[in-house]
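User: What would this chain look like folded?
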Amino acid sequence: MLWQKKKKRKKATKPKAVTQTAAPQQPVEEILQTTKSEKKEETPKQKKPAGKKYKKVLSPEKAFLDAFRRLTNRHRAWDVWRDFITMFACSLSNPLDKEHRDKREALYLEIIKKYNKQEQELFPELAAQTVLALEENPEQDFLGSIFMSLNLGNESNGQFFTPYHVCELMAEVTMDNTVQKVEQDGYISINDPCCGAGATLIAAIHAARKRLEKANLNYQNHVLIVAQDIDSTVALMCYIQLSLLGVAGMIKIGNSLTEPIINNDSTENYWFTPMYFSPIWTTRRLFGRC
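Assistant: Here's the prediction, encoded as structure tokens.
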């Protein structure tokens, strides 16, 4: 066998290590800045707006009853009602009726002394709610309806106020000749010898107003109210509502059978609405036209 020269084995070459250049490390400050910017870019979660608590607005009737009941903690409901009506009537009468001012001012001060400071502040609230109620809906017997809802009517004397829709029906039937009467005499007078809180008169006033407005006449200058009731509290309720409606009128407290309204009568128990003292009605009285 021929001798063969051994071939030289090639030495296994070790793979050269690939040297990777490491990226330069960022300073800590730069890393913090980038994280902050990323947080800014993220849309912040919107917080749900907290639900606003709105104070519930009460109707004039409910607000009136709420204030009234707060006055009945120490006083009887009937006494509170009578005192409120009397003081409200005095406050409407005194600015213009100079003849009765001193007497009615003394009556007002005598009544208000019965109540403490917190209670005294509730009476203007009752008056304000009455005004708001008649501004929102002038065609209503607001005080009469509140009076009956509080069960303050005198059933033993047969005291029951006529529902307003019945009063409206009677007014529509009886007020047809309003414009003709005004054109003839310059005004029309509406008389109720047992007026109560004035529901019948209020309905008649608005029936006359609608007819006079069609003839371009202002009812406040051409409608005069003459009323009477034996109960002083309900008579003053009528006085208050007629005054707030801006109608000229006179309300007498007394028995319409034994002490009816007559010419040259004593005005001691008379309550004249503010509109009664307006220039047009004062002029009519001076010339004897009403």
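The chain has a mean pLDDT of 86. If you want, I can go into more detail on any region.
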